[in-house]
Write a structure and sequence with these properties.
- The complex is a heterodimer.
- Chain A is mostly helical.
- Chain A has 17 helices and 4 strands.
- Chain A has a domain of 233 residues.
- Helix content of chain A is 71%, strand content 5%.
- Chain A has a 4-stranded mixed β-sheet, sandwiched between helices.
- Chain B has 2 domains: 219 residues, 3-Layer(aba) Sandwich (Rossmann fold), CATH 3.40.50; 73 residues, Alpha-L RNA-binding motif (Alpha-Beta Plaits).
- Chain B is built from 10 helices and 13 strands.
- Classes of the chains: A mainly alpha, B alpha/beta.
Chain lengths: 435, 324
Amino acid sequence: MNPLRSLVRSGAFVGKEVAEVIRQPRLLLVLVLGPFLILLLFGMGYREEARPRETVFVVGEDNPVRDQVREFADSLGSQVIFGGMTTDMEAALSRLEQGEIDLVVQVPDDPYARVRADEHPTFVLIHREINPVQTDFVGRLSRAYVDEVNREVQKRIAEDTQQRSRDLEDEVTSAHALALSLERSLSPSPEARRAGELADELELIQRRIDELSLVSPEVLVQPFVTEVRSVSEVSPTLSTYFIPSVLVLLLQHLAVTFAALSIVRDRRQGSIELFRVSPMTSSEMLMGKYVAYMILGGAVGAGLTAAVVYGLGAPFLGSWLNYTLVVAALLFASLSGGFLISLVSNTENQAVQYSMLLLLTSVFFSGFLVILDALAPYVRVISWLLPATYAIELLREVMFRGTLLQPQLLYILAGGGAALAVVDWLLLRSRMSRL
Amino acid sequence: MATGASGPVVKAEHLTKRFGNETAVDDVSFEIPRGAIFGYIGPSGSGKTTTIRMLTGVYLPTSGSVSVLGAEPQEFGRSVRERIGYMPQHFVLYPDLTVWENLQFSASVYGMGRRGRRIRELLEFVELEEHRSKQAKNISGGMQRRLSLAASLLHNPQLVFLDEPTAGIDPVLRRKFWDRFRELQSEGTTLFITTQYVGETVYCDLVGVMAEDGRLVALDTPDALRRQAFGGEMVVINLVEAVEPQMLRELRGMDFVTGQVRREGETGVHLVVDDAATAIPRVLDWGRAGGLQIDSAEEYDPPFDDVFVEIMNRSTDRQSGGQS
């Protein structure tokens, strides 16, 4: 076998495939620019904060917290739009059903009396959501609201307690002075010692009262707060965080689709008959196609990366070498999958359908939409069969952590691609053999 | 295994191919000597392409044996494949590539290094130089056939299988193609050419005629086929006066007449003889002896369309006779 001739034969496909793709700009637009623009628009337009709810409060005229209801609502920030107060529950519910408002809050009657009676006064939140995510949000909103109310109530109790202790302070000071005077006048006697002990106790109480008045009511009712810090150098926004996964899905889809259409087109067109008669071998043919699509995928990948890193300002902490290795392994494994699709498909339509099915599977199972830990272990098996799953993990590490924490994922991705390439070669060899 | 210089380049023995219950090629045997043009004629669906596919190793025969360039197609090595050129019946090159790029691609498939000059030569031969920058999808069907032909000849093969190379080509260019095939033949190339244009048989050294049921019903040189079709050579006599039935009866009784004697118009007679050169003087003698005025008596080469129809009819008669 002349290796130079073998290279020339493989080279036939490099030039041919690249020229064919370049001659089909619409295909490139549909496969690359289309999904990229859709995801870009989504990323730019997606709002990370929840939709504000217009809320009407149903509260009795003589309710002691009536004046604070608006204050509590405002304390929740933009999540609640105060829609007014009413005493008419039916009218409020009617407005809710008509979709004029989002939420009705029924404030409990005479809440203080209920607390004194050792009962929980209950705020009832009534909504009209059917989306389980939004229903869950209303639940969280209700807890935040009642926490705010409880905190406000506790703060007022604390203020009241501080005020009462300040009122007591003068009396304690007088009693302390009196006890000291008694101690001096009765000394030395056992009574003088007891008066001295009393003076000490009163001094301690005085100090406690002083301490109590030094602490603000806010700290008293919520002594502990949390603060979250990250050792990561960057904290990507939600939109930025999705950039590596979008890149991976686009490149995987591009490589799979190109490869899936490639061999099936040769077979449908009849060119494969020509190759059967020629000295071209299945390995030379496959090699040429791999190189062609690696070049095309690499060019598209470089363009997309430049767009997101330099155009959209996505953080990039890692090395370009690691990034290139991950993208190359992703393209290689995706091409192997695409060629497999091409070899088991009978028509180009079938190949496109299989490619779309793989894209859909990747959207749901690769960690793009939901984290892998949220999937049941038996479903995660599917995740780890997808090149995108490995590449998303790896690119996030390279871009946002600046290092490859799990290099084994890179090895598995490349190794899986190589194993699939062997399967492709065997299948192609069988297709190229005589009938 | 190398084929001997004098041995046949292609040898098929009892070659049969069945697809399920359908027999595409039925017990076909032939040999093609080195440097010959073998014409493979038959109606559409008679198994011509299937035969080529068995000879090139695309199909495995159901039964029978094949030897091409001294090797069985299922054992073709790279060196044998490099010596074979193949032009499939349909256009299988790439419509999005230009004419030039398609030829570059085909040259690469055969591992050719420097190929620019060779491509230009073939473009000139198939008269596509002006269209070299056009995408294959933007040229006519005839041009696509010419492009396929050029692609199959790029690597200077010793044996070329051309599946209907002249289909859809205008008569002038078809003639040029055959001239080129003769040139290739003179350079030692063996050509296996299928065609539905029966008239092209005349350019071949050896002709195989396929029937619709996949049988090879005739295999010989064009002249021999002509004799085979009509039972001898054909002579046309033109009399000055009208031909009488008595004259036809007399001619049928002549010993040099070996086949049909029939009247053509008022004054003409066609007769099949063993050898036209010796028969014509005897016809003239017969005329003089009978007092007939013979305007002309000459050998007649019937068109190959007639030869083909005659062979097909004879084959059908033989088959129905055999069945009855």
